[in-house]
Amino acid sequence: MLTALIQQSCTPSVEDNRSRLAASIAEVAALGARLVVLQELHNTPYFCQVESVDNFDLAEPIPGPSTSFFSACARENNVVLVTSLFERRAPGLYHNSAVVFEHDGTIAGIYRKNHIPDDPAYYEKFYFTPGDLGFRPIQTSVGSLGVQVCWDQWYPEGARLMALAGADILIYPTAIGFESSDTPEEQARQRQAWQLVQRGHAVANGLPVVAVNRVGHEPDPSGQTRGIQFWGTSFVAGPQGEILAEASQTEPENLLVDIDLQRSEQVRRWWPFLRDRRIDAYQDLSLRFRD
Among residues 48, 150, 179, 246, which one is catalytic? Predict the structure, then answer.
């Protein structure tokens, strides 16, 4: 399945960001892409660097203006499209949500980000309520998509639950980068860990993984930090964790990768991790900590 990862930098203009995404979607579709994946919160700069009630004005209902726009992109280009939106569910209730469109433009499903970070420059708990739709793959014409969002990618539980529910592929729209004052050594450790943990999900579950990150520097509106340098490096890993393709660390890029979804069957025959799970011995995984 020819899959496209659209790695983009963001400007303050929603119209500009969406217009450039639409052009990239059309470009990769013309090259044969059947599945197109966008980065996290792609309509705007990463606003969670600060806590400001004014930023809630960026949120939209689902369905709403952005779903109408990206529905048309999916339909006009005949692609399954994975998007990432700031959802206004009700007054005072907001989610970080992935919306998947079928190739005819209909909404195939929604995933609401479950793990919400609250770190310096990533103040997401101020904005987002944890998801309540569980870890359920979204069924599409190109396969069963185990879509999660960014911070979810650090947790093996979500990946495993998606696999146990029949996902064909794990997908993570992402917005992650360095604090600009980090040393080069620390920057390398963080970026490598980010890839490594997701490659581990691929190995442990025998599934390909798609991770799409944004790129470029975005300043901190408060001036308290030097902003975030998003590290790009969008990539696809195969079901043994092998890197199939990787995008630039610094430049916008449309990455096209042919993913063999049938290969997982053979890999799982060699490495039958699901067969050998001791499901009778894992009860304490539901505890916060084993005292």
Answer: 150
Is 179 known to be catalytic?
A: no
113 counts as catalytic: yes
Out of 5-19, 39-53, 135-149, 176-190, pick the least confident: 176-190
Q: Nearest-CA neighbor of 217 among 52, 83, 45?
A: 45
Distances from the Cα of 99 to the Cα of 89, 210, 252, angstroms: 13, 16, 22
What pLDDT does 100 receive? 98
CA distance 123 to 130: 13
The overall longest dimension of the chain from CA atoms, in Å, is 56
Q: Whole-angstrom Cα distance, residue 208 to residue 201?
A: 9
68: its two tokens: 């109408």
Half-sphere exposure for 179 (CA within 13 Å, toward CB): 12
Q: What is the pLDDT of residue 223?
A: 84
Q: Which of 10, 40, 124, 246 is catalytic?
A: 40
Nearest to 9 by CA among 35, 36, 46: 46
Alpha-carbon distances of 266 from 47, 143, 163, 239, 272, rounded to whole Å: 43, 17, 15, 10, 10
Question: Which member of 113, 124, 179, 218 is catalytic?
Answer: 113
- Residue 198 and residue 146 in contact, taking contact as beta carbons nearer than 8 Å: no
* Peptide bond before residue 156 is cis, with ω within 30 degrees of 0: no
| Catalytic site includes residue 48 | no
d(C-alpha 123, C-alpha 88), whole Å: 17
| C-alpha Rg value of the chain to the nearest Å | 18
Q: Which pTM was predicted? A: 0.96
Distance separating the N- and C-terminal Cα atoms of the chain: 46
Give residue 232's region: left, alpha or beta (phi > 0; psi -120 to 50): left
